[in-house]
Write a structure and sequence with these properties.
Shape: globular
Helix content: over 70%
Strand content: under 5%
Number of strands: 0
Order of helices and strands: HHHHHHHHHHHH
Number of helices: 12
Number of domains: 2
Radius of gyration: 23 Å
Distance between the termini: 13 Å
Length: 363
């Protein structure tokens, strides 16, 4: 099967982008980082500004991801010692800031899935803590629909309905605790000397990019093409034929085992998601605002994000099901929830396969 090979050049871009374009991109991202950091400091402690703090944190993560990706893709053009010191620190910061949102989104996803599967109303134990003290709007809408008088659950849903409320309460306790800890960790990180050292380096980057002597005139396109090739190679290694089928029994069998290790089928897909992100950011560095939005890349990225979210949600359901001394009905509901999320994983793989195959055919 022929593999998709994305052209890293833009016909409208004009002259070949050089290291000067990379320097401008890094300065712009460093400036965005500093702007987001200032916004976070202005809103982080003020009452009634939680939304602004969340937006500032997201902006911090966006700029950090782009700086880190550029240091990875274009590292031959940057001072090696400086780059190798800063990259792991940026990865630490991005990972630390992402966890709170990840736990909140995972809880919301699992509660909605439980409600969909069981037909039950919003769980009594739900307090909305996972989304900043309020019940997510999507859950509110679905709860209104459920309480408005839909058909009663089918007989085969009986056991699931019995255990769904306790399963939801268990997931909420576990994931809210994890989210609270992640929030505390993020606050500690943003006040630490380690973070201030990273912020100082990024502040310097906003005015001075440590390029190598030959970088200002070096063509960026070969390095961007290398990033695209790594993506293409990783996609080639994916089991796209298996992803073309609607059911993957092996994925469910592993999830039912007592082994808490991550699912072995998921790692290559997670790697492709990261490589796709590197490729997108490499294009941004090449052409800046002139970079055209590739809808196909965007669609593929969305499918891989759904894959990641469903995979992590399934792992959370499986972890909750391993809680000692839970009722059989609760364990049953969590097992059904786990299987549902693994089916969502397969659906995301199928969507990516369809998207990628269309890209191949279109060429």
């Amino acid at each position: 099967m022929a593999q998709q090979h994305l052209d890293p050049t833009d016909p409208t871009a004009g002259p070949a982008p050089t290291g000067e374009a990379l320097a401008g991109y890094l300065r712009a991202q460093a400036t965005e980082f500093l702007r987001a950091l200032r916004q976070y400091r202005e809103t982080g402690t003020a009452p009634g500004t939680a939304e602004g703090s969340v937006e500032a944190t997201r902006a911090l993560r966006r700029s950090v991801r782009r700086i880190s990706a550029s240091l990875h893709t274009y590292r031959p053009l940057l001072d090696a010692d400086w780059s190798e010191v800063l990259r792991p620190e940026l990865a630490w910061l991005s990972g630390t800031l992402s966890m709170e949102h990840a736990y909140a989104a995972r809880l919301e996803r699992l509660l909605l899935a439980l409600q969909r599967l069981s037909g039950a109303a919003v769980f009594p134990a739900q307090t909305g803590v996972a989304t900043g003290g309020r019940v997510p709007e999507a859950i509110q809408v679905k709860a209104a629909h459920v309480t408005a008088g839909p058909p009663s659950p089918a007989p085969d849903r009986g056991n699931l309905t019995v255990g769904a409320a306790k399963a939801g309460a268990l997931l909420e306790r576990q994931l809210t605790l994890a989210r609270t800890r992640a929030h505390s960790t993020a606050l500690q990180a943003l006040g630490s000397s380690r973070f201030h050292a990273v912020a100082d380096k990024v502040a310097v980057l906003a005015s001075e990019v440590p390029l190598t002597p030959t970088a200002p005139t070096a063509d960026l396109r070969p390095l961007a093409a290398a990033a695209e090739e790594r993506l293409a190679d990783a996609v080639t290694a994916l089991p796209l034929v298996t992803a073309g089928h609607p059911y993957n029994a092996a994925a469910l069998i592993h999830g039912l085992s007592p082994d808490p290790a991550p699912h072995p089928q998921d790692a290559p897909w997670h790697q492709v998601r990261l490589l796709l992100r590197l490729h997108r950011y490499a294009r941004e560095a090449l052409y800046g605002d002139k970079a055209s939005l590739d809808v196909r890349l965007l669609t593929a990225g969305q499918a891989l994000h759904r894959h990641r979210d469903a995979s992590e949600a399934a792992a959370a359901a499986a972890s909750a099901a391993r809680t000692p001394r839970i009722a059989p009905a609760t364990a049953y509901a969590l097992g059904v929830l786990h299987a549902d999320q693994r089916h969502e994983v397969e659906a995301a793989r199928f969507a990516f396969q369809q998207c990628w195959q269309k890209q191949v055919v279109s060429r």
